[in-house]
């Protein structure tokens, strides 16, 4: 049988699919872990057995951003990579995403919304301190761990101040250069959906119309929404820094400036243990997949 090309996702490790996006596909890894792999398609005409898609550079950019953050004293509300290879990045398995919560419950309760918004703003301010911005803060990219603490993920759009944001998502994005104004617009839009249960401009179906309304500042009134004036200030880009916004949220949400973030990072020892487990799992999976490939090749000859 002659070799074929397929439109089937290919992974060096296989595994059950968790989610798929522009920057890669997420599959189950060893216990308590997932592996995010580049979007590759099965291709028996190549020596590797796959071909890269146009989105692989986004995956490599995210790998570079995760590596950059790992060099710093990582923030507890940002997902940690325990092992990174060109075939996949191993990350802790989270309980759910903010999008899952909104789809299930319609809106967040006040206590959860308070904690999540403060943690999101804190993580965004930390990124700003190293002169980077996430660039795509929206519910699917905000994960929650088993204790209900935020772990921001998906750094394929992360960029330095002043760079152009090409891949963020309406309505958490306006046509702006990357910086405090663009990021606080996203946080204001997250506040809106958490407090109302509806995405900003949810009743506008046409993409072009929605885009124009965002650019022109044609946004719904928020006077009767919790912390509505903060939402308005975020949309208007009135905060000079994201740390300023974080401080405002601490006060407005009733936590106070002395609030201690209860979220934690994995310790270096935990990361090392997880990395060893992931390496062993990856080796085992590769061997099993190669055995399957050889068995199929014999069957087809």
How do the SSEs run, as a string of H and E? EEEEEEHEEEHHEEEEHHHHH
Question: Can you summarize the main beta sheet?
Answer: 5 strands, antiparallel
Termini Cα gap:
7 Å
Radius of gyration: 21 Å
Strand order of the largest sheet: 2-3-4-8-7
Structural class: alpha+beta
How much helix is in the residues? 40-55%
Task: Look at the structure and name the CATH superfamily of the largest domain.
Answer: Transferase(Phosphotransferase) domain 1
CATH topology of the largest domain: Transferase(Phosphotransferase), domain 1
Q: Mind telling me the CATH class of the largest domain?
A: Mainly Alpha
Average of pLDDT: 93
What coarse outline follows from CA principal-axis ratios? Answer: globular
Strand content: 15-25%
> Which consecutive residue ranges, at least 5 long each, have pLDDT under 50?
none
- The CATH architecture of the largest domain would be Orthogonal Bundle
Number of helices: 8
Strand elements, count = 13
List the domain count as a whole number. 2
């Amino acid at each position: 049988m002659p070799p074929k090309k397929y439109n089937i996702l290919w992974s060096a490790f296989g595994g059950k699919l968790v989610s798929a996006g522009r920057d890669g596909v997420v599959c189950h890894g060893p216990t308590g872990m997932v592996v995010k792999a580049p979007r590759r398609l099965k291709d028996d005409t190549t020596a590797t057995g796959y071909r890269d898609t146009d989105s692989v550079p986004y995956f490599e950019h995210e790998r570079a951003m995760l590596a950059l953050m790992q060099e710093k004293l990582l923030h507890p509300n940002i997902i940690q990579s325990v092992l990174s290879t060109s075939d996949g990045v191993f990350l802790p398995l989270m309980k759910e995403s903010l999008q899952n919560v909104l789809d299930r419950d319609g809106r967040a309760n006040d206590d959860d919304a308070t904690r999540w918004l403060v943690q999101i703003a804190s993580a965004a301010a930390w990124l700003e301190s190293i002169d980077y911005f996430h660039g795509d803060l929206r519910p699917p990219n905000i994960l929650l761990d088993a204790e209900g603490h935020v772990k921001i993920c998906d750094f394929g759009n992360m960029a330095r101040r002043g760079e152009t944001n090409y891949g963020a998502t309406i309505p958490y994005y306006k046509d702006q250069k990357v910086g405090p104004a663009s990021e606080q617009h996203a946080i204001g839009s997250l506040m809106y959906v958490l407090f109302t249960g509806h995405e900003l401009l949810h009743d506008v179906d046409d993409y072009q119309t929605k885009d124009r309304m965002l650019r022109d500042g044609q946004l719904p009134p928020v006077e009767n929404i919790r912390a509505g004036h903060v939402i308005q200030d975020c949309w208007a880009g009135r905060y000079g820094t994201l740390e300023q916004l974080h401080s405002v949220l601490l006060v407005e949400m009733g936590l106070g400036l002395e609030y201690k973030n209860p979220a934690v990072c994995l310790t270096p020892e935990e990361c090392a243990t997880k990395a060893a487990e992931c390496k062993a799992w990856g080796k085992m999976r590769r061997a099993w997949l190669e055995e399957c490939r050889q068995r199929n090749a014999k069957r087809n000859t």
